[in-house]
C-alpha cells in the first residue's frame, strides 16, 4: 500500500483492487500517464494536477487512463464554461447557504451496506423566492467537493434519493431543460464521483414528463442506475435498508434535520443572518440558459420534443398506473 491509499480500510482496499483495478505497485505510473495527457489540451487550464487529485479521477473511471483524463478535462472545462457558477463557491455565499439550510443536499450520517454516502433531497423544500436552481446545484457541487476528499467515498461512491412529495407543478415549471442539462453536465460528465443509484420516490406525473426531456442526455450507465419507486417505499427498502433511512422515507431513523449537513459546512456561520434575493442572480441564470440552448444538439432536442416540448410540461393522455410507477425504472448492473 502506498501513502496515496492511506485512510482506506482493508475492505475498501480489496474493493478498489477488484472493482476498480487499483494496483498499488503501478499507482504512480497510472497517475503519471494521466498527467502526461494534459499537454494534449492546451485550451484548458488544469488548475490542480497533484497525485491525490488525479487519483480520484482514475477511481471514478476504474483506472481507464483515457476515460480518467477525459473526466479530468471535462471537470475543468465545465468550470471554464460556467464561470459565474463557480464564483464565490463557498458555504457562506448567501444563495448556497439558504439552499444548504433547506437540505439541498441533505447527507445521512449512516452509510449504506456498500459503504456509500447517502444524499437526500426533499424537493418541496425549495423556496423559489429565496434562491434559484443554480444555487441548489452550486450547493450540491460544493458538498460533493467536500465529501470527495474522503478516499473511502472515492472508492465506494454515493447514493442519491429525491423525494418529490408535495412538489408542485409551479415549482416544476422552473426546472427548464437547459437548467437540468447544466446539472447533468456538472454531475454526470464533469465530477469524479461514483453514483451507485439515483432513487425517485413519490414523483408526480410531471416529473416523469421532465425525465423524458432529459433522458437523451443521460449515459446508458446513468439510466441503469435511476429507479422510479413512486409511492412504493418497499422497493426502495429492498435496495437501501430502512434501518438507516429517516422516517420520511419509511425508515426507522428519526425525521431528517435539514440543517445537519449545513451545520457541518457552515460551522459558526450557520446562525448568521443573510440578506439574499434570487433576483440578483437572475441575469447569470438567463445567460447560462441562453448559452446552453445554443449548444444543445438539434437532433437530440428533436427526440425530446417528440415526447414533451422543452420548457412546457404537458399532462400525458394516460398517466401510468401507480403499480407501474412503483417499479424501479431499470435495474442495477
UniProtKB/TrEMBL annotation:
Disordered: annotated segments: 293-333
GO cellular component annotations of the record: clathrin-coated vesicle; early endosome membrane; trans-Golgi network
Family annotation (InterPro entries): CRAL-TRIO_dom, CRAL-TRIO_dom_sf, CRAL/TRIO_N_dom, CRAL/TRIO_N_dom_sf
UniProtKB keywords: Cytoplasmic vesicle, Endosome, Golgi apparatus, Lipid-binding, Membrane
Compartment(s) of residence: Cytoplasmic vesicle, Clathrin-coated vesicle; Early endosome membrane; Golgi apparatus, trans-Golgi network membrane
Membrane topology field: Peripheral membrane protein
One biological process term in Gene Ontology: lysosome organization
Chief localization: cytoplasm
Segments crossing the lipid bilayer: none
Segments forming domain CRAL-TRIO: 96-257
GO-annotated molecular function: phosphatidylinositol bisphosphate binding
Biased segments, Basic and acidic residues type: 312-323
Protein task: Required for normal morphology of late endosomes and/or lysosomes in neurons. Binds phosphatidylinositol 3,5-bisphosphate (PtdIns(3,5)P2).
PANTHER family, per database record: ALPHA-TOCOPHEROL TRANSFER PROTEIN-RELATED, CLAVESIN-2
Protein name from the UniProt record: Clavesin-2
Annotated source species: Anabas testudineus (Climbing perch)
Amino acid at each position: 500500500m502506498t501513502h496515496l491509499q492511506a485512510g482506506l480500510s482493508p475492505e475498501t482496499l480489496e474493493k478498489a483492487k477488484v472493482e476498480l483495478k487499483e494496483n498499488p505497485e503501478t499507482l504512480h505510473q497510472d497517475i503519471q500517464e494521466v498527467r502526461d495527457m494534459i499537454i494534449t489540451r492546451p485550451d484548458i487550464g488544469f488548475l490542480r494536477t497533484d497525485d491525490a487529485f488525479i487519483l480520484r479521477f482514475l477511481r471514478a473511471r476504474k483506472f481507464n487512463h483515457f476515460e480518467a483524463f477525459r473526466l479530468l478535462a471535462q471537470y475543468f472545462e465545465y468550470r471554464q464554461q460556467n464561470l459565474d457558477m463557480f464564483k464565490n463557491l463557498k458555504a457562506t455565499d448567501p444563495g448556497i447557504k439558504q439552499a444548504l439550510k433547506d437540505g439541498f443536499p441533505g447527507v445521512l450520517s449512516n452509510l449504506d451496506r456498500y459503504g456509500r454516502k447517502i444524499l437526500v433531497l426533499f424537493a418541496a423544500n425549495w423556496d423559489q423566492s429565496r434562491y434559484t436552481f443554480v444555487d441548489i446545484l452550486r450547493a450540491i457541487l460544493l458538498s460533493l467537493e467536500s465529501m470527495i476528499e474522503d478516499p473511502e467515498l472515492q472508492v465506494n461512491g454515493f447514493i442519491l434519493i429525491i423525494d418529490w412529495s408535495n412538489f408542485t407543478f409551479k415549482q416544476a415549471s422552473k426546472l427548464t431543460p437547459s437548467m437540468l442539462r447544466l446539472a447533468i453536465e456538472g454531475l454526470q460528465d464533469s465530477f469524479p464521483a461514483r453514483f451507485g443509484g439515483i432513487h425517485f420516490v413519490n414523483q408526480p406525473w410531471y416529473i416523469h414528463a421532465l425525465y423524458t426531456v432529459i433522458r437523451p442526455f443521460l449515459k446508458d450507465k446513468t439510466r441503469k442506475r435511476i429507479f422510479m419507486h413512486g409511492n412504493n417505499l418497499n422497493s426502495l427498502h429492498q435496495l437501501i435498508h430502512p434501518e438507516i433511512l429517516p422516517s420520511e422515507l419509511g425508515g426507522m431513523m428519526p425525521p431528517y434535520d435539514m440543517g445537519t449537513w449545513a451545520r457541518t459546512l457552515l460551522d459558526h456561520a450557520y446562525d448568521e443572518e443573510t440578506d439574499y434575493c434570487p433576483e440578483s442572480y437572475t441575469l447569470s441564470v438567463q445567460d447560462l440558459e441562453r448559452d446552453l440552448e445554443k449548444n444543445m444538439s438539434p437532433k437530440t432536442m428533436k427526440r425530446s420534443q417528440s415526447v414533451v416540448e422543452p420548457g412546457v410540461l404537458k399532462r400525458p393522455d394516460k398517466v401510468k398506473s401507480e403499480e407501474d410507477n412503483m417499479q424501479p425504472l431499470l435495474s442495477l448492473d
